[in-house]
Write a structure and sequence with these properties.
By secondary structure, the protein is α+β, with helices and mostly antiparallel strands. About 20% of the residues lie in helices and about 25% in strands. A hairpin with a 2-residue loop joins strand 3 and strand 4 (about 75-85).
């Protein structure tokens, strides 16, 4: 990947998560008491920007809630507090989801880019806490431990850990690599409007390798058989709990037969199509997602028309 691609913005400012201190109550209390410590308050899994920026506050400004140690960035210790929506200030519409911040990343907001790994950490944890209310073994209540990174059943003692679901996402191509006849396979989900396309994707199943998941998902969704599969990159995607693992793949068949359940339409597109130079008017994701990176890497330049 010679150029910096869109999804790299989500991981270039990785923070130290201070995992060794999650059970050190004295250290946690000392850090919480520092004037320099900063806290992100979440209502469920939503945040409230102030003047268009992430609103980091001091510990004394936080409502009651579940405290999550995020770690440190730029020598500042950072926490998140997950509060009940009714316990936070402001109007309901002032609290937004993570996806609503993405347009500012596209506008080159470096301040937000530095916050993105912290936001993904915080909101990923908030989504897990929000969805994990009771012990799956006995139905008992759960108590937050390890600075918010574990939940322990108050009845049977079973521990729960944050969940991340691995998902594969792939740029499938056919034709001579780099040649004029090379094409990329893109699909349109059933819920998407006409003309909106992206790379195929799907979740890895238990007992399955990532490469096998690529081949299975492409075959199930489009009817195309894939041979060679190569790793491209990965991206955390806590919307609500995915890790997107990108691949490039070479097709060994070209006939398309969509499943009609997840994918309504799939087609082979040329580079001229993605540049908007042909009659095939399509919209593709020009954002910070790894889907954009996969297509831009194949195209060799930024995407033309996005959504």
């Amino acid at each position: 990947m010679p150029r910096q691609l869109p999804h790299v913005a989500l991981s270039q400012y990785a923070h130290d998560r201070e995992g060794m201190h999650r059970t050190d109550d004295e250290w946690l209390a000392q850090r919480w008491a520092l004037d320099s410590t900063r806290v992100l308050v979440l209502a469920g899994s939503r945040l409230r920007p102030v003047d268009g920026r992430v609103n980091w506050v001091s510990p004394r400004e936080t409502p009651a809630g579940t405290r999550i140690l995020l770690g440190h960035s730029d020598d500042v210790t950072r926490f998140a507090v997950i509060a009940q929506p009714g316990d936070v200030p402001g109007e309901r519409e002032e609290w937004i989801g993570l996806r609503d911040l993405f347009p500012r990343l596209l506008a080159g907001d470096d301040t937000l880019a530095a916050d993105i790994p912290l936001l993904f950490h915080a909101i990923g944890m908030a989504e897990w806490h929000w969805a994990t209310r009771f012990c799956p073994r006995c139905g008992g209540g759960l108590e937050s431990t390890h600075a918010g990174h574990e939940l322990q059943c108050t009845s049977c003692g079973k521990r729960q850990f944050p969940r991340t679901d691995p998902a594969v996402i792939m740029a499938v191509t056919t034709g001579e690599p780099g040649g004029d006849d090379e094409r990329i396979l893109l699909g349109r989900q059933v819920s998407w409007p006409e003309g909106r396309f992206s790379t195929l994707a799907g979740f890895c199943e238990p007992g399955e390798t990532l490469e096998a998941a690529v081949r299975r998902e492409v075959l199930e969704e489009s009817g195309v058989r894939v041979a060679e599969v190569s790793y491209f990159g990965n991206q955390p995607w806590p919307l609500p709990a995915s890790l997107m693992i990108g691949f490039t793949a070479r097709a060994e068949t070209q006939e398309i037969k969509v499943d009609g359940v997840e994918i309504a339409e799939a087609r082979w597109f040329s580079r001229a199509d993605l540049r908007g130079e042909t009659e095939h008017a399509i919209k593709v994701p020009t954002g910070i997602s790894i889907s954009s990176s996969l297509m831009e890497d194949w195209l060799g330049e930024p995407l033309h028309a996005g959504w």
